[in-house]
Design a protein that fits this description.
Shape: globular
Order of helices and strands: HEHEHEHEH
Strand order of the largest sheet: 1-4-2-3
Strand content: 15-25%
Helix content: 40-55%
Structural class: alpha+beta
Radius of gyration: 13 Å
Amino acid sequence: MTENERKILNLLGIARRAGVIFIGQDQVLESCKKFKALLVITSDDCSENVLKSLKNAETRINVERMKLNLDRTQMGQAVGTKSAQIVSMDYENGFAGKILSLMNRSDADE
């Protein structure tokens, strides 16, 4: 795990404590109905069914999707659940922008 991935996981945990993150397929799909733009983060082992349901929602709103090189257990630990294969957040709280900037720096390091 890279340093930026650790920082992203820390930000996901902080976002959870702040109550600005949606965890799991049902909450993420519900958030797609409430917001015009979302950052959606998936685990490396996210199921095809979840990705397919997200594709349908992406036709209605602006979704920036990123995949972490972590399994659902690792991502779940970051957000305080047993496992999580998908999470989302809107752009208004600032966490999404910070996570995207860390991800972009991570991509440049590879």
